[in-house]
Design goal:
218 residues, alpha/beta, Rossmann fold, 4-stranded parallel β-sheet, two-stranded parallel ribbon, 12 helices, 6 strands, 13% strand, globular
């Protein structure tokens, strides 16, 4: 992600003190613990500049739930500032920088998985596809039910493992049915879940993050 942003002329600063946005604790019902972690996140990113994340899940959580955590608090204004500055990687490329052709080359046949965080919480649908369609050597094919969840869902995969793995099976089968060699997505969490199922069953397909695709061939 940094490689692509710097190629496009962005000055990238990586705060090495940053930690989690607090989503895992929040989703598990630990609101106080989530707020504690989220408070650190706010102050780690208090500089008024763009915040770009390689995860629609993190981006969606910050944008949609920090308001409820910090409403009528001393960090209310800072929370609004951070939420306004937060962008998912592909969204930043297409909506802020207004760029679709990165000049990347990635040889192979791939299908795109709409990660829930990016699609449902950030409204990201067309942007990643526009970026991928400009990648030289890449044949992009749509799978059936591309918007269907892969089954990870954070702690859902632990609490409801049989259902979670059944969803992964369905998703990976849809990808395999296209003849694709790769499943491209915006979220590492989805990649981890699907790749675990792929490895366990020794299937001829591989997950890859869209940032790695866009950073290839130049």
């Amino acid at each position: 992600m940094v490689k692509v942003l710097e190629k496009l002329g962005c000055k990238v600063n990586y705060n090495q003190k940053q930690t989690c946005c607090g989503q895992p604790a929040f989703n598990a019902g630990y609101r106080d613990e989530a707020k504690s972690v989220a408070t650190k996140f706010l102050h780690d990113f208090k500089e008024n500049s763009f915040i770009v994340g390689p995860s629609g899940s993190c981006t969606g959580y910050v944008r949609n739930f920090y308001e409820t955590l910090f409403d009528n608090s001393s960090d209310h204004n800072l929370s609004n500032q951070v939420c306004g500055n937060m962008f998912e990687f592909t969204e930043f490329l297409t909506k802020v920088l207004k760029i679709e052709d990165i000049g990347a080359t990635f040889n192979g046949k791939a299908t795109y998985h709409d990660a829930c965080g990016a699609l449902r919480e950030c409204g990201i649908k067309a942007g990643p596809r526009k970026l991928l369609n400009k990648v030289k050597g890449l044949e992009l094919v749509e799978m059936k039910e591309c918007e269907t969840c892969c089954g990870f869902g954070g702690t859902f995969a632990v609490k409801f493992e049989p259902i979670s793995m059944g969803m992964a099976q369905t998703k990976v089968k849809s990808a395999l049915d296209t003849g694709a060699e790769y499943i491209i997505t915006t979220d590492v969490s989805c990649m981890m879940h699907m790749q675990g199922y792929i490895n366990e069953n020794r299937l001829p397909i591989k997950t890859v993050h869209i940032a790695d695709v866009l950073a290839s061939g130049w």
